[in-house]
Amino acid sequence: MADASAPLVSVRDLKVHFPIHAGLLRRRVGAVKAVDGIGFDIRPGETLGLVGESGCGKSTAGRAVLRLLDVTEGSIRVEGTEIARMPQGELRRLRPRMQMVFQDPQASLDPRMTVEAIIREPLDEHTRLTRAEKRERVAELMDAVVLNRGFATRFPHAFSGGQRQRIGIARALALNPRFVVCDEPIAALDVSIQAQVVNLLEDLQERLGLTYLFISHDLSMVRHIATRVAVMYLGRIVEMQAREGLFAEPLHPYTRALLSAVNEPDPVAARTRRRIVLKGDVPSPANPPRGCNFCTRCPDAMPVCREVDPATLEVGPGRWVACHLHDPAVMRGQPTRPFGAEGPTRRASPTAYDTPARSAT
Ligand SMILES: Nc1ncnc2c1ncn2[C@@H]1O[C@H](COP(=O)(O)OP(=O)(O)OP(=O)(O)O)[C@@H](O)[C@H]1O
């Protein structure tokens, strides 16, 4: 029998490096390390929020997990199947199980196709349903995303941004996927309708048992929707915790800086909140700093931070934060070691990696 608590998606040591070519012969002279060794699990029905500043590698990670991009290294298992190096022909068979909702509904919908044709496209490609069955399925999907069935013959330009995103969501759900990557699904929408689309995504998750990777730079939205949160900086995950732990007691200096810039709904907490302004710019992913890649901007950085082996900082099962300042062994000047069963020194959170699906509301 399938283990209900087994991860639906399991990513290990994932790297996506884009080659940089130069010169007359277009020789390879380096690489943009957009994703540089990340790992996480997502359990069925769970939402993992992936946050970080623009350019930190969130979209590249999301696309790579669905194999919309080729990966440089690492493992991606979806429902137990290794897909990291699977040929496109074989991947096609798995496409119905994993889908993506894109940031810009305007750009992701073909303006020459009617809503019905857009939502029907995956059914045409992957199923042998009859015309009537497809029409019925499209109508069901329009109901599911709360779009009037009567709009099926209209074109995308006739809709508002929020309605266009609903069309994109209906298309993503056409083949009954289990796993959906939502890449900044509300970033291009008016603030007034962002909450409606997020509520719709939550509602669909509950009704259809969906599992989400929810990519966003908006921490307040992630706080609302995610069960667990992974924070990315310069191609790496620097911290991953259950949502409550991350927002109540962020461990990594980068997470603390990001959270210090978010509006605090609790007025008492807001009064004591100290804004942390990070110095300098984000380094180039083509030339990341030596040691801990946050050390050039970290308010807590120490000389040892330049020496640490980045591989020993990798966040993954049993390790919550990629900062050796939490590791007493390093601070005593001893060799680094990953956190073991004892967890981080400041706060052991055994549920951080093992949160059961949707226990938190
Ligand atoms: N095809 C590509 N070729 C070269 N570099 C790329 C490519 N795609 C992305 N990058 C670079 O990889 C890094 C990560 O980009 P990515 O779009 O994944 O970040 P992001 O966190 O999603 O940012 P945003 O929210 O602005 O989209 C950036 O430096 C970007 O310029």
TrEMBL record:
Annotated protein name in UniProt: ABC transporter ATP-binding protein
Domain ABC transporter: 11-259
Membrane-topology descriptor: Peripheral membrane protein
NCBIfam families linked to this entry: oligo_HPY
Keyword list, A-Z: ATP-binding, Nucleotide-binding, Transport
Primary localisation category: membrane
Pfam families: ABC_tran, oligo_HPY
Organism listed in the record: Rubellimicrobium aerolatum
